[in-house]
Amino acid sequence: MSSVGGSGGSSGSSGADSAGRAEAARAEAARAEAARQAEASKKAAEDAAKAQAAQQAAQAQAVQNALAADTFTAAAPTAPVDLNPSPVSAAQQQAAKTDAVEAAQQAEATAEAEAQAEANKTAEAEATAEAEATQEAQAADAAQETAEAEATAEAEATAEAEAEATAEAEAQAAAQAAQVAQVAQTPVVFEGAVTNALAELPAAGLARNPANTQPTAQQQVANTRLQTALNELGYVARSHVTGFYGSITEGALKSFQYENGMAVTGRYDAMTREALAGALAEKRAAEAQGIRAPEVSLPDRYTAVTDAQLASIMPNSTAARRAEMLGPLNAAMEERNISTPARQAAFLSQIAAETMDLQFMSELEPDPDLGAYYGRGALQLTHRDNYVEAGRALGVDIARNPNQVATNPDLAASTAGWFFESRGLNQQADQGRIGAVTLGINGGYNGIDHRLSAYDRALDVLGAQRD
């Protein structure tokens, strides 16, 4: 989170705390004032009750004194001398005393009742004040919680907005960096370089030589010039520069046309000649300018090919054979970094062509010159040296028992994965160079049409990006 988001959250929380403390102080002051008033009211009631009781007692005493004066003092001058009061006077005196006592008791009871009523009023006032103070405190707490929640929500919204802005900025920066890198990886090709390359190529119109025929000397020269260009571009091996325009030269041209988005005919026409000249000039410019193909970033986690995807890539495969081979193929691809859609498409399309969609794990018509080491497995491992090298890499002595490469699904897949990686075909697949992949596996272009159609399906099914 940026400093802007952090400062906003802190200020909101501090303001809410101050408001809460102010509300709590006001509630406490209210409670104290209510208690003081209640105490004053109680004391006033008690003082009033005492004063009333004293007044009533004084009145009773006055009555008693009056009676005594009337009986003994006021009557003395006229009454005969009789020291014994009459029974009536004694009864009156006793009644007056009783009335005075009752009046005093009643006054005291009244005072107590009034004091209790005042105390009840005081208690009610205190309870009301306390309830109001509690409500105010709760309201203050709720207000503080609301303020804190609003501050938190605002801070989170700010953080989210900042994160979105950061992500957008990073995406833009990455796109710009990729654009810059793309520009940096594109060589500068001058028109003169293309003109020179065109001069090296034969005129358009060369055709494939029929099998078991010998081209004329002029045709051989023209074929050799074309094959030399294809060799420089990586479509044929040096041993294929023979002057004979056969299936390998035709397959190389088909691969070149496919990779460059042209009609795949295998014919050396004017458009193909122009494209070859441009490719030669660009390759030479890249080498002169020190530009290499960018490395591909591999995914952190392998994404397995599904049965449905495999069935689409190899429509002639059976469910039973796919069930047998899918797990081993995924294990081999994961182990050998055949982990991008482009690499998987190249790998599986070659297997589709080599095994006729997983139908055959062994060469149908093996070359007698190969002895026991003819083509077997998902990519038709061939030659004794390859069996020995693969066995060492996998820790299995397949050279002693080569047939297990055809009968063991794990070995059929693992030998294919080992060969694909060890021959640098992952890197060729990264650049979409299906011709170089085919040449690396087959040594030529047998079944090139099957390979290209399977590759097309695989690219679509696996979601590989096309250049």
UniProtKB/TrEMBL annotation:
Coiled coil: none annotated. The keyword Disulfide bond applies. This is Peptidoglycan binding-like domain-containing protein. InterPro entries: Glyco_hydro_19_cat, Lysozyme-like_dom_sf, Peptidoglycan-bd-like, PGBD-like_sf, PGBDSf. Keywords: Disulfide bond, Plant defense. The keyword Disulfide bond applies. It comes from Pyxidicoccus fallax. Residues 13-22, 50-79, 90-146 have a biased composition (Low complexity). PANTHER family: CHITINASE 12 (PTHR22595:SF79), CHITINASE-RELATED (PTHR22595). Residues 147-167 have a biased composition (Acidic residues). One of its GO terms (biological process) is defense response. Residues 1-170 are annotated as: Disordered. One of its GO terms (molecular function) is chitinase activity. Residues 225-276 form the Peptidoglycan binding-like domain. Residues 23-49 have a biased composition (Basic and acidic residues). It holds the Pfam family Glyco_hydro_19. Residues 1-12 have a biased composition (Gly residues). Residues 371-422 form the Glycoside hydrolase family 19 catalytic domain.
